[in-house]
């Protein structure tokens, strides 16, 4: 059985959401970050970076929330959270899955730290371009892959929710707002948020 190592108010919400979307049976192991439980030698065998989330599934250990989303999507193919190899949509799916840590989070960090980086030197390009690209991607709707919800929506949807609603770094744009609202309305995300709230 999958064992999820998590803590409230972290990227663990991504893992909770994707597991709920998949209908997976899983055990939650809440780590007390203030007490430093994530730094234990035992846990660092699972995630050497001493962060959450991470999961184990029998002998398999996976860290990094994007990798967890990819793993769960492929471990539960009947949930339809990832286009299979050979599906033309798989290229865009992988692009969006990696867009979150590669572009969005770096853009958030640069904006919040008020750091100016030449677009040619910044791995994420330009802050506004990141969200122009996302706006164009979600405009047709309802999801990044059209009618097909995927694990990539878990990554991008939560990033946009945090960027717009929590951190207030991204100005609200109608297409982004509508997309985030569709994500927030998903029953699996509502269950994940309830689990997080109960553990806070």
From TrEMBL:
Residues 1-80 form the GST N-terminal domain. Residues 86-200 form the GST C-terminal domain. InterPro entries: Glutathione-S-Trfase_C-like (IPR010987), Glutathione-S-Trfase_C_sf (IPR036282), Glutathione_S-Trfase (IPR040079), Glutathione_S-Trfase_N (IPR004045), Thioredoxin-like_sf (IPR036249). This is Glutathione S-transferase family protein. It comes from Methylocapsa polymorpha.
């Amino acid at each position: 059985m999958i064992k999820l190592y998590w803590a409230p108010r972290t990227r663990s919400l991504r893992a909770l959401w994707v597991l709920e979307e998949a209908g997976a049976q899983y055990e939650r192991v809440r780590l007390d970050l203030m007490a430093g439980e994530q730094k234990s030698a035992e846990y660092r065998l699972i995630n050497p970076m001493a962060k959450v989330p991470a999961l184990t599934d029998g002998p398999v250990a996976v860290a990094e929330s994007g990798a967890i989303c990819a793993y769960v999507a492929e471990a539960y193919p009947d949930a339809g959270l990832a286009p299979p190899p050979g599906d033309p949509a798989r290229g865009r799916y992988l692009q969006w899955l990696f867009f979150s840590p590669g572009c969005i989070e770096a853009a958030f960090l640069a904006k919040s730290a008020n750091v100016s980086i030449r677009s040619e030197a910044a791995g994420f390009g330009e802050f506004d371009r990141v969200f122009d690209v996302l706006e164009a991607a979600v405009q047709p709707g309802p999801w990044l892959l059209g009618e097909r919800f995927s694990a990539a929506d878990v990554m991008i949807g939560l990033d946009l929710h945090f960027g717009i609603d929590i951190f207030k770094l991204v100005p609200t744009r109608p297409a982004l707002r509508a997309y985030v609202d569709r994500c927030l309305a998903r029953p699996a995300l509502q269950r994940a948020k309830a689990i997080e709230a109960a553990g806070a």
